[in-house]
Amino acid sequence: MKRLLAICGVALLIHLVPLFLPRNMPEQELAIARVATTAEERVHFLMPLRQHPKATPADLREAAELLLDGAAPAEAHELAQEAERRDPRSMETQLLLARICDVERMERCVSTSLERASQVAPQDARPDLLRADLQEKNGDFAGAAESMKHAYGKAPSDPVIGLRYVRLLSVAKHGDEAMSVLRGLEGRIPRARLLVEQGRVWTREGRDAEAVQLFRKAVEEDPKLSAGYFELGLALYRLGKTEAAEESLRDADRLDLNDPRALAALCAMQLEQRRINDARLTRMDLERRFSGQMDLIRQSCSIP
Q1: Is the pLDDT of residue 253 over 80?
Q2: Which of 30, 59, 279, 291 is close enough to 55 for a disulfide, judged by CB 3.0 to 4.6 Å?
Q3: Where are the TPR repeats (predicted)?
Q4: Using the 8-state DSSP alphabet, how is residue 56 labeled?
């Protein structure tokens, strides 16, 4: 009984401690704002941090992020500017400002913030990565590829950056350059994955026959590589080899039961071939296994 009373006393003390803490700490306002459900509530609790002497630049950046997520970009901008005033040499603040300015459609502000971020950390790839993000979002794939070139030059050992650079080069129709970058990634990513990426480059170039050869090598190298079977199925279908394409897509689905893309592609193929009954069965499977992704199902498997 004494032990139980002691435990209850400790629990009560833990719950009483916050009552004796200062009520005006930035951490408290941030904690309340994190669980707020509307932009108005977040603005109410977070905007006073702009004048709070104890609010750090990191506090102000988090507050700005919460307001940006809560559809209050103008207020987020004010908080980010205050963070910049308190720490002008922070690259994180400049990157945040660039994102906020993009939401506000302030192109000059985006450019200025990214330039300042690069000046603060000349060898950091993150400003170039964000610039590529924004350019790609606006449909400027050539510009995004150029930005990724700078990012890759700063981080040539990062395979994630390298693969993204490859994809943007390929989308921008620079297939030979993309293949050259992939050759430079040999040994940094698994060979089967490298073969899949090479096949994707040729796919974007319309060279499906060559892509099929690479995808087949990839699945021979790694028989459990779902992405290899998925890409192989798509390329085979474009070449008119429908039975082999369906087999590959079913293999892709079997190897990754959490990814709906293989079944969605299969349904789209069946509909294109007017195999309505088969498509209905595929859709039933999709709805049973991926009921939370109805938008994807409707887009790829809309039964007439």
Answers
A1: yes
A2: 59
A3: 192-225
A4: -
